[in-house]
Amino acid sequence: MLNEVFASDETVALAKEKACKMLGVSEDKIDFEICQFPSKKVLGMFGGKLAQVRATIKKTEAQKAAEFLKEVFFYMGIPELDIEILSDKKFECEIKITGDEIGYILGKHGETLDALQYITTLVANEKAYDEPFCKIRLEAGDYRKKRKETLENLGKNLAEKSLKTGKKLSLEPMRSYERKLIHTAIGEINGVKSWSEGQGSCRHVVVAPAIRY
Questions:
Q1: Which of 136, 140, 144 is nearest to 117 (CA)?
Q2: Which of these, 36, 73, 161, 176, has the minimum number of CB atoms within 10 Å of its CB?
């Protein structure tokens, strides 16, 4: 499939229309560069130029993200990592990264992966202010899936321990989306409740018997 073409015609509008037909997509999905404006012939006989445009199909946010990640991994010295676009939607995209060197992009509790996801999202959304924002979600192997299962089990175990001992228990500080997973898991168990305490990086989950607190 063509990604870029040059088209010429009597006017810029006609040249753009021709380029759209050549690429097989609508005008809103193409970036245009006017290479040459038309000019009339002198005395209707000499000279004169057609309008010429360069048309390039716009890259999706997922494609921009994938290209950025390839460059990042190259400079990190881990170009062997594979990048696969799992979903490419208007408001949310998912990219999966696999390979033997995947440990280099995880960090403690996925902190490096989260930072990489944040930066990639910013890069992929470099566009006009009135265009919709697209969230980029990065998965490294099955890390997020396994982390989610671990946190859910941790929350349930903590809830059962709180019920058994009748005591208020606290977990280590976590990021907001991890605390949310814990709260959701605890919410499925009757007789206990949970909430978050602390400020900033010290914010953590607390669970206690509902009848005592």
A1: 136
A2: 176
d(CA 81, CA 69): 10
Spell out the residues 6+ positions from residue 45 whose beta carbon is closer than 8 angstroms to its own. Answer: none
Question: Do the Cβ atoms of 38 and 51 come closer than 8 Å?
Answer: yes
Look up residue 139 and give its two tokens.
């998965």
The CATH H-level (homologous superfamily) assignment of domain 153-209 is: R3H-like domain (3.30.1370.50)
Q: Could you give the CA distance from residue 46 to residue 48 in angstroms, rounded to a whole number?
A: 7
CB 82 within 8 A of CB 99: yes
| Pairing outcome for strands 92-98 and 135-140 | parallel
pTM of the model: 0.73
- Domain coordinates of the chain in residue numbers? 4-57, 61-141, 153-209
- Is 12 strand, coil or helix? helix
What is the distance between the alpha carbons of residues 123 and 68, in angstroms, rounded to a whole number? 8
Q: Give the tens place of pLDDT for each residue, 25-66.
A: 889 888 899 999 998 776 555 567 899 999 999 888 999 999
* pLDDT of the residue at 3: 84
Q: Scan for tokens 């208020």, then name that residue.
A: 168
